[in-house]
Amino acid sequence: MSRALGWASVGLGLPLLVRPAESTQAVGVGSSPKHRAAATLVGVREFAAAAGLLARPSSVWLWSRVAGDAMDLAMLGRAMKKSDGRGIRRTAVATAGVAAIAAVDLYAALTRSRKESAMEITGTTTIRTSPDELYAFWRQLDRLPTFMAHVDDVTTTGERTSHWKVSAPFGRTVEWDAEITDEDAGRSIAWKSVGTADVENEGVVRFNPAPRDQGTEIHATIRYSIPGGKLGEAVARYFGEDPHQQLDDDLRRLKQIVETGEVVRSEGAPGGKRARKEFPQHAAQPLTDDEYAAEVSA
Length: 298
Prior knowledge:
The protein is 49% helix and 21% strand. It has helices at residues 2-18, 20-26, 33-55, 59-82, 88-116, 131-139, 229-238, 243-260, 289-297; strands at residues 118-127, 151-156, 161-168, 172-184, 188-194, 201-209, 216-225. A seven-stranded antiparallel sheet has the order 1-7-6-5-4-3-2. Strand 5 (188-194) and strand 6 (201-209) form a beta hairpin. The longest helix has 29 residues, at 88-116.
């Protein structure tokens, strides 16, 4: 669609550049120097959008078309308001045509922006337990919040369905329904969000036997759309919400829970994570006199 709109920009811009006077008259607007200059500028804008869309399709060029459509509608509306009535019918038809094009441009820009904001993250770790035991632990979805820092709650709603509540940057909470789309006991679980999800997502977790019977290699791949696209991703990372780091931390906590029964917390980071102070830790402090004496005597 982006490339089709690029060629559409060529088709719209060419007559405006080659015959600006005839173009303005065709839409019921006068052919004064001011009108011809405006038509030429619109033609240049269309060719710039065409060059961008045909060379490297991007939502930036699609949004530039949307902005251009808004400008065109404003100019046509002004022309209709000041019309002496002789060309108002042609102006009205042109306005309807531009409105239709604007709707297509807006749809394309929104769709492209959504695709551009999709992110895929991967993580892996080795856990000293069998694939069957690790699969069984993960398959109990209500256990996931015990090691996934941003997951507040997972409620099982069916044999393969669940409802998720997840903390998002800036104090927000997002929710969605999810469905297990494929599973192979002891080997893998795949899922995706369904219905109207606040954050569309899907992923797969694989449980592979580690070499030399060293436990299980867990490989997680998650794909989801970030609200706000790349800008939202950058802002979230600035406030300590890097999705890649989140997954690594979650898998590290899973390893600790499965191997030791609890999340190990350092005494050296009293504030926990900078963004949400999740899994808060105790502040480090000097030994008391009695503790120091006991250490010395030991």
